[in-house]
């Protein structure tokens, strides 16, 4: 087994995605986002499948992650992504001992305000039924929705973990922007700024981002508004975040922290 594991590790490093210790905690220098990633950066998303190799190579680390306490964790998929896209990390969290669940709304169609309203009720009921707050884990747009749910019902949410989520500018600094009008992008950007100013998030947030992101400008994933937010940099592509071992480990660590 050892020679196979070594070979997988070598392949992962050769891909350019794995570079030894691939995580970094701390707030990056303040650099404002300036639109979507370049086409060259978007092309790097073709390497997303390499993360499967990294998962295999990282098995020992994944097995040693903090165990869960049976609490509820809802996972929220990214834009136009089905619930099954979160199945790998959901399965891992269940193995750790969490009651990991889908968000229950099917494919994320990008109806942020409607989804937030529906999730508020679902999550409030779940928290009331188990008599403890729940955690939210969101990928890309799913993370944006998770933040807004937590903003509205902090009494039902213990913490939020996002990866590759544009917390600055809405869709403006993403390749999804072309599916929205300029007016819609401006409206979303103004609304986010207003909410962060008048009703800042009051629950712990872990924001995971990658400078290799070819879908969302990584600078838009840096949260400079939430007090005490933890930033974790990983080496994944955007599309590979859901199966990146460093994302899994950072999520497990965040969920294990005391309130």
In short:
This protein has helices spanning 2-14, 39-43, 51-57, 59-63, 87-96, 112-130, 141-152, 182-198, 245-256; strands spanning 24-25, 72-76, 99-102, 134-139, 157-163, 205-210, 230-234. It is of the alpha/beta class and 259 residues long.
Set out the fold topology.
Elements: H1 2-14, E1 24-25, H2 39-43, H3 51-57, H4 59-63, E2 72-76, H5 87-96, E3 99-102, H6 112-130, E4 134-139, H7 141-152, E5 157-163, H8 182-198, E6 205-210, E7 230-234, H9 245-256
Parallel strand pairs: 2-3, 2-4, 4-5, 5-6, 6-7
Antiparallel strand pairs: 1-7
Helix pairs in contact: 1-3, 6-7
CATH superfamily: Alpha/Beta hydrolase fold, catalytic domain
Sheet-strand content, in percent, reads 5-15%
- Given the C-alpha coordinates, what overall shape results? globular
CATH architecture: 3-Layer(aba) Sandwich
What integer value in Å does the Rg equal?
17 Å
Q: Would you state the CATH class? A: Alpha Beta
Q: Please state how the strands of the largest beta sheet are arranged side by side.
A: 1-7-6-5-4-2-3
Largest sheet, in brief, is: 7 strands, mixed
Mean pLDDT over the residues: 90
First and last CA, distance: 40 Å
Order of helices and strands: HEHHHEHEHEHEHEEH
Unreliable residue stretches: 7-21
Q: The CATH topology is what? A: Rossmann fold
What is the percent of helical residues?
Answer: 25-40%
- The number of helices is 9
């Amino acid at each position: 087994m050892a020679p196979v594991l070594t070979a997988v590790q070598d392949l992962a490093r050769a891909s350019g995605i794995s570079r030894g210790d691939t995580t970094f905690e701390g707030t990056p220098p303040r650099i404002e986002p300036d639109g979507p990633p370049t086409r060259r950066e978007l092309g790097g998303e073709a390497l997303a499948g390499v993360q499967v190799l990294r998962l295999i190579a990282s098995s020992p680390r994944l097995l040693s992650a903090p165990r869960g306490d049976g609490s509820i964790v809802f996972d929220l998929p990214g834009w136009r992504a089905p619930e099954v896209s979160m199945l790998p990390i959901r399965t891992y969290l269940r193995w750790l001992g969490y009651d990991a669940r889908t968000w229950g709304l099917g494919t994320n169609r990008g109806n942020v305000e409607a989804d937030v309203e529906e999730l508020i009720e679902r999550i409030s009921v779940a928290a009331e039924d188990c008599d403890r707050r729940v955690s939210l884990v969101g990928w890309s747009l799913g993370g944006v929705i998770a933040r807004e749910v937590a903003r509205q019902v902090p009494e039902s949410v213990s913490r939020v973990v996002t990866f590759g989520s544009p917390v600055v500018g809405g869709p403006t600094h993403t390749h999804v922007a072309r599916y929205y009008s300029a007016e819609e992008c401006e409206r979303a950007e103004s609304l986010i700024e207003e909410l962060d100013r008048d009703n800042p998030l009051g629950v712990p947030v872990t924001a995971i981002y990658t400078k290799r992101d070819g879908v969302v400008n990584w600078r838009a994933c840096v949260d400079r508004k939430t007090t005490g937010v933890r930033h974790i940099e990983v080496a994944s592509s955007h599309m590979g975040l859901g199966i990146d071992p460093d994302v899994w480990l950072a999520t497990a660590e965040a969920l294990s922290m005391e309130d």
